[in-house]
Design a protein that fits this description.
With 729 residues, the protein is an alpha+beta fold. It is built from 14 helices and 35 strands. The protein has 4 domains: 5-22 and 550-720, Jelly Rolls (Sandwich), CATH 2.60.120.380; 37-139, no CATH class; 154-221, Alpha-Beta Plaits (2-Layer Sandwich); 233-540, Peptidase S8/S53 domain (Rossmann fold), CATH 3.40.50. Helix 6 packs across helix 9 and helix 7 runs parallel beside helix 8 (364-376). The longest helix is centred in the N-terminal third of the chain and has 25 residues, at 37-61. Residues 252-537 form the Peptidase S8/S53 domain.
C-alpha cells in the first residue's frame, strides 16, 4: 500500500465525556494482627523514647515540634489500610514518609500525650485495625552522613509541616541558631523545600545538627560534576561548518553546563545568548561546547541516520567551573535566566552527582528541578549519569551499584541513558558500559529514554573510548563518551517538537510524543529485565514522531482528570478494515499516558500524590474491562503494583497485539484517578495526555483514512496535532 505520511490527530474532549461513577465502599475493618497488651506497651515505650528526643531537640533548637517515624506492616501499605484513625489532627498527623512503608508524623508534647492515650484505650474495630497495621514507632534521625568533617559548604534541609505559622517559627529559630554559631548562610527561595546553604561554620555546628529537631538532612554543597574531557579525544582536524539558515526559526535550548565557546567557528553562530556565573580563573568551555555541538549539529558531526537532522540554538548558562558546580547556585542561576528568557522551554542538564540516588526518596536537586519545571512550564532533559567503578558487560554479569545519579530522579524531567553506536565492549545499540539504570524512589522508571553516547574497546586490557563526534572550543573535531552526550540529542528533538506544536505544546504532550515514538519503534521489543537501562527506548527524528503511515492512526487526547470523576470516549471508532469476517478486531494497540500529578516534597517515597490510569476495552456485565494492558505486568499486592506495575508513576505505557482478533463490538477509552490517603484532592485538576495508536498488523489496511472518516461521522472535535509547519533543514 501507499507509504505516504499523515499527521497525528488531536481529539478534544467534550463536557459530555466527563462523568461521576458510583463510589465503592472502603476495605475491611478487621485487624491485620492481634493487638495484645504487650504490643500496646511496646508502642508506649517507643513514644517515651521519641518524647526524650523531643526534649533534647527543644533545648537545642527552641522548637517543641519534631518528626517521628511510623513503620507499617508489609501488608498494610495500601491506602485502605492507612491508620488515620490513630494518626490524625487530634494526635500526631501524617505529613510525609521516609521510604516504602515508613511514614512521618508531626509530634509535640501535647500530641504525643494524646497519641499515648489513644493507644492505651483504643477499643473500637476501626481503632484496633489501625493499631494492627503498625510495625513500630521510632524517632527520626537526620541524614547527615554525607557532609564530612572538613567544614566544606553544606546545604541543610528543614522539615515542612502543614502549618505555615509553625514553619515560619522553625525558620526563625534555625536562623537564630546559625547566627549564634558564627556561620555564613543563605536561604534558598524555593517554595517546595526549605534549604539553607551554610558556607562558613565552626565544627561545633556539626555536633549540634543531629539534635536540631527541625533538620531533615544536610549534604555537601559542591556535589554536581561533569565528566572530565581528555585532550586525547581532540583530533588535529577542524570541524566542518554548518551555519544556521537565515530564513529558519530555530528553537533555543538552555544549556546548563560549563559554558560555550563563542569563538569556536563551528558553534558560535548557534549561540543565541549566554550568562556566566563562574569566576574567570575557573572557566573551561570544553564540556559545554561539545554538548552544544550535539544540540545544533548531531547529524552533521556524526553522519549517522540514527541521529536527528533537526537543529537548535543554545543559550549558555555557565555554572560549572573546572567541571564542578554547586546545587544551590545552579538552581538559582536557572531561575534567574528563566525569568529573563521565558521563551526557553527545553533545558539541557548534562551533569550530575557521582553516586546513585536513594530508592527511598527523591534527591534535593531533583525536588528543586521539579519545582523549576512547574513554575516555568518547561521541560528539563537530564543525563542519567556515568558509572565508572567497572567496565560493565551486557547483559550485566552481576548486580551493580549503577543507579542513576541526581538530578536524574526528577519526576518532571526526561532522563536520558546511553546506547553504544558501534560494536566494542558491548554490541551496537546495547546500553553503553557506563550508562546508569533505574528505577528511582517509588520505583519510577528512569531513564525515560536512551540515545547514542559511545562505547569502549578493550585493547590489551586497556579501555579505549569509542565516542560520538562533536567539537572542542578551538574548533577542532572531537569525540567522547558519556550520557552527557546522549542527552543533548534528545533535547534538540524535544525543542523542535515544542516549536512544531506551537501554542498547543505542553511538557506533558512533548514527553508523551517522545516516549510513544520510542516505545513503538524500539522499547516494546526490549526484554522486561533490561528496561531499567533502556527506559522506553530510542526516539526517532521529528518527522517520524509527528507523522504516521496509512496503515495506522495515532490520536492525541489532552484533558484534566480529577477525583470522583472519570473521562471516557464511548463509543470509540474502530476502522471496519480491521474487523475480520466474524466481526473480531485484528489489530495492534499502543497507548502512552503522561500526566502531571501534584508532588509533595515531604513525602520521600509517596512523592507523586495521584495515580491516573487509562483503560481501552469494553463494558461487560456492568463492569469495564480493559483489553490493552500495561507493558509492565500488574500484580495483586500493593508492593508489587508499585514495583512492577507502574502504580503512581506519571508515565504509563500499554501495548497489545491481537493476531487472532478480539471479539469486542463497542470499544471505550476510559481515564480514572486514585489519590493518596490524606491529600485534599476534591476539585484538584491533573493535566494528562494520551497517545493512542491503532495499527494494522499486516501494515496493509487503510486505517488512517477510515479512522478519520469515522471520527468525523461521530462528530468528534478533531484537528491536526502539529499546527505550525517547521522549515525542513
Amino acid at each position: 500500500m501507499s507509504t505516504s505520511k499523515n499527521p497525528i490527530k488531536h481529539v478534544q474532549f467534550s463536557t459530555n465525556d466527563y462523568f461521576q461513577p458510583p463510589t465503592n465502599g472502603g476495605g475491611s475493618s478487621a485487624p491485620l494482627k492481634p493487638v495484645s497488651t504487650q504490643f500496646r506497651a511496646e508502642l508506649i515505650s517507643s513514644i517515651d523514647a521519641v518524647s526524650k528526643y523531643l526534649d533534647i531537640g527543644t533545648k537545642v533548637s527552641g522548637v517543641d515540634t519534631c518528626a517521628a517515624v511510623v513503620e507499617l506492616e508489609n501488608n498494610a501499605t495500601a491506602k485502605s489500610h492507612r491508620p488515620t484513625a490513630l494518626f490524625n489532627d487530634k494526635t500526631c498527623p501524617f505529613f510525609g514518609d521516609q521510604g516504602y512503608g515508613k511514614f512521618l508524623i508531626q509530634v509535640n508534647p501535647e500530641r504525643l500525650e494524646a497519641l499515648r492515650n489513644e493507644i492505651k484505650t483504643a477499643k473500637t474495630q476501626i481503632a484496633l485495625k489501625a493499631l494492627s497495621t503498625i510495625k513500630g514507632i521510632s524517632q527520626y534521625t537526620p541524614k547527615l552522613d554525607s557532609i564530612g568533617t572538613d567544614l566544606a559548604p553544606i546545604v541543610i534541609r528543614l522539615f515542612r509541616y502543614n502549618d505555615d505559622k509553625l514553619n515560619l517559627f522553625i525558620d526563625q529559630k534555625f536562623e537564630e541558631l546559625l547566627n549564634n554559631n558564627n556561620t555564613l548562610w543563605a536561604k534558598h527561595p524555593s517554595e517546595s523545600v526549605r534549604l539553607y546553604k551554610v558556607s562558613s561554620y565552626p565544627h561545633a555546628l556539626l555536633e549540634l545538627l543531629p539534635h536540631v529537631s527541625s533538620v531533615q538532612s544536610a549534604i555537601r554543597s559542591q556535589s554536581i560534576t561533569v565528566k572530565p574531557m581528555a585532550d586525547s579525544t581532540v583530533k588535529a582536524e577542524e570541524a566542518d561548518l554548518s551555519e544556521p539558515q537565515d530564513d529558519a526559526n530555530y528553537p533555543i535550548i538552555g544549556v546548563v553546563d560549563s559554558g560555550v565557546s563563542t569563538t569556536c567557528p563551528a558553534i558560535k553562530s548557534w549561540v543565541a545568548g549566554s550568562k556566566c556565573y563562574v569566576p574567570e580563573p575557573l572557566r573551561d568551555f570544553s564540556h559545554g561546547t561539545f554538548v552544544s555541538g550535539l544540540i545544533s549539529n548531531s547529524f552533521h558531526f556524526n553522519q549517522d541516520n540514527r541521529f536527528p537532522t533537526c537543529q537548535s540554538k543554545v543559550f549558555s548558562i555557565e555554572v560549572l567551573g573546572k567541571g564542578i558546580g554547586d546545587v544551590f547556585e545552579i538552581i538559582n542561576a536557572m531561575h534567574e535566566v528563566a525569568q529573563e528568557q521565558p521563551h526557553i522551554k527545553v533545558w539541557n542538564l548534562s551533569l550530575g552527582s557521582s553516586s546513585p540516588v536513594s530508592l527511598d526518596e527523591i534527591s534535593t536537586m531533583a525536588l528543586m528541578l521539579d519545582e523549576f519545571q512547574d513554575k516555568y512550564d518547561c521541560l528539563c532533559i537530564v543525563a542519567a549519569g556515568n558509572y565508572t567503578e567497572s567496565l560493565r558487560a551486557w547483559p550485566p554479569a552481576s548486580l551493580l551499584n549503577d543507579g542513576v545519579s541526581s538530578p536524574a530522579d526528577s519526576v518532571r524531567a526526561i532522563t536520558v541513558g546511553s546506547l553504544a553506536h558501534i560494536d566494542g565492549h558491548v554490541l551496537n545499540e546495547e546500553p553503553s558500559p557506563f550508562s546508569r539504570k533505574g528505577p528511582v524512589s517509588n520505583y519510577i522508571q528512569k531513564p525515560d529514554l536512551v540515545h547514542f553516547g559511545g562505547n569502549f574497546l578493550s585493547v590489551g586490557g586497556m579501555p579505549i573510548p569509542l565516542g560520538v563526534n562533536s567539537v572542542c572550543p578551538t574548533g577542532y573535531k572531537r569525540n567522547d563518551i558519556g550520557t552527557s552526550f546522549s542527552t543533548p540529542v534528545v533535547a534538540t528533538i524535544a525543542a523542535n517538537i515544542y516549536q512544531e506544536l506551537g501554542e498547543r505544546a505542553t511538557p506533558n504532550l512533548v514527553k508523551a510524543l517522545l516516549i510513544h515514538n520510542a516505545n513503538m519503534a524500539h522499547g516494546h521489543k526490549i526484554d522486561k529485565a533490561h528496561k531499567p537501562y533502556f527506559g522506553w527506548g530510542l526516539p526517532q527524528d521529528i518527522n517520524s514522531i509527528l507523522e504516521v503511515n496509512d496503515y495506522e492512526a495515532t490520536l492525541a487526547f489532552q484533558g484534566h482528570a480529577q477525583k470522583s470523576f472519570e473521562v471516557e470516549k464511548l463509543p470509540f471508532p474502530i476502522p471496519t478494515c480491521l474487523r475480520t469476517e466474524d466481526g473480531k478486531v485484528r489489530a495492534e494497540f499502543f497507548i502512552t499516558l503522561v500526566y502531571q500529578p501534584h508532588l509533595d516534597p515531604n513525602r520521600a517515597f509517596e512523592y507523586c500524590q495521584f495515580d491516573v490510569n487509562v483503560g481501552f476495552g469494553e463494558y461487560k456485565d456492568g463492569r469495564f474491562s480493559s483489553k490493552v494492558p500495561r507493558q509492565n505486568d500488574a500484580h495483586q499486592y500493593e508492593s508489587e503494583l508499585v514495583k512492577n506495575g507502574d502504580k503512581w508513576s506519571p508515565i504509563k505505557v500499554y501495548h497489545k497485539r491481537f493476531p487472532q482478533g478480539t471479539n469486542i463490538e463497542n470499544w471505550k477509552l476510559r481515564v480514572s484517578v486514585l489519590d493518596r490517603e490524606g491529600i485534599e484532592a476534591q476539585g484538584v485538576q491533573i493535566p494528562f495526555t494520551i497517545l493512542l495508536t491503532i495499527r494494522d498488523i499486516d501494515k496493509e489496511k487503510p486505517v488512517y483514512n477510515e479512522m478519520t472518516q469515522l471520527m468525523n461521522a461521530y462528530n468528534w472535535e478533531v484537528s491536526d496535532l502539529a499546527i505550525e509547519q517547521r522549515l525542513k533543514v
